[in-house]
Every structure is written in structure tokens, then in C-alpha cells.
Design goal:
Number of strands: 6
CATH architecture of the largest domain: 2-Layer Sandwich
Helix content: 40-55%
Radius of gyration: 22 Å
Shape: elongated
Mean pLDDT: 90
Number of helices: 12
Strand order of the largest sheet: 3-2-1-4-5-6
Distance between the termini: 55 Å
Largest sheet: 6 strands, mixed
Amino acid sequence: MNDALRIAMAEAGETAESLAGHVGVDPKTAARWVTPGRVPHPRHRAAVCATLGREVGELWPDVVRPREPVWFLPWAEVERRADTLRSFQPTVVPGLLQTEAYAHAVLSCGPLAGDEVEGYVAARLARQADVFGRPRPPLTVFVIDEVALLRGDPEIMRPQLDHLVAMARRPKVLLHVVPLSAGFHPGQAGPLVLATTDTGEDLAYLDDQAAGRTTKDIAALRQVWDTLRSVALPRDQTIEFLTRREWLS
């Protein structure tokens, strides 16, 4: 039984019937919410919390625990075992380099409900800790198209750029920006991440509008990566570019 919900209903003087009236569902549906594993739709969760004066995490803590989409879990495990990660992003800052505010803004613009966004943001920050918080972190190389740095509220982007500069100065983090002056390049087809695991296995991760996938067929992707590195700014010039940030002035 969901004791937290049952107690909150009792303290608020609500029954399944009255709660159903506030939320706009059948009383039988509301009654099922106090049984284990029964979690309302995000819209109904918000209405229940508003009625009872509680937070989602109080009534359904499992809903807001750090998590990633099911289809991403295999790659998250690859990240944890990687000796080397090479990432290219054409439109957003890579997830491993996002600040909490930036991650929240990016995830909020999609179909996720508010409480789901919080869980995904927490999971993203946990991934960063898994990669960079190891005693021996992997070598990470990030290439970001300048386009990704031009989009976003300045109040969010300024601390995000500060964070990129700080990360770029870490010993095993290499950061490179592909400037607009580079013109068209093969990376415009989409983001990619290449990983070499602790067993020497080479894998790649590709993302699209619906989901992401892991593949071992990386020969062509290596060529794309090499081309991107060749047109990107060197590390020192990238740090100078990010520090100057003339487009935000």
C-alpha cells in the first residue's frame, strides 16, 4: 500500500471519492492509487499534490529518483566502463558537460512532465559524477558546433559557458568548438559518441528524435570524427573563444 498517499489523504480529510472529484477521475481509479505500483498519470499526480498540499517526491518517491530512458541504459553502462569517450554535438551542449540549469531547460522543452524532468536532470548529473568522479577518469574529448552555443537564455548560457571553460582546463578533458566559419561538415547529420571500453572494445552511440542506439559498426563514424577534429578549433583557442563569448555581450 502507498502509505504516504493514504496518510496524506487522511490528514487532508479526503476520501477516494472526494479526491477523484478534485482530480477529475473515476473514484475506482483514485482508490487504486493507494495500492503498490499504481502511479497516476503526470497530470493527475500534479492535481493530487495540489489537492493534498504535498510534493510528488513525498507521495511517489520512485517517480523522481534519478533515471534515464530504458533505451539509454546500455550506453550509460558503456560510459561507466569507458577508458576513452569522444563526443560530438551539433545543436546542444553534451549531456556530460551540462549544468543543472541548462539540462533543466533542454529537457523541459520536450514532452516530459515537470516531475519527470527533475528525475532526468538528476540522472544526467549522476552520469557526470560516474564519469568524472572516478579515481582514474577516462580521457574525454568533446567537439561542439558553435551553433549549440548560440541557443539559450543568456542567464543560463553564461554559467554554462563558465562550466565549459572550467571543464576544458581539466587534465583529461579536451574540448573543441567547430566555428561557423568551418562551413558545412559531415557532423551536421547528427550527434555521435565513440567509446573505447576497459576491455578495448570500440562502440558508438547515435541519437535521433525517438531514441538512441549503440552500435559496433564504427568505421564510417571514425572518418566523420576525424573530419570534425580537423575543422575544430584547438584546445587553447577553444578556451579563448568560450571566454570571449562576444555573441552574449
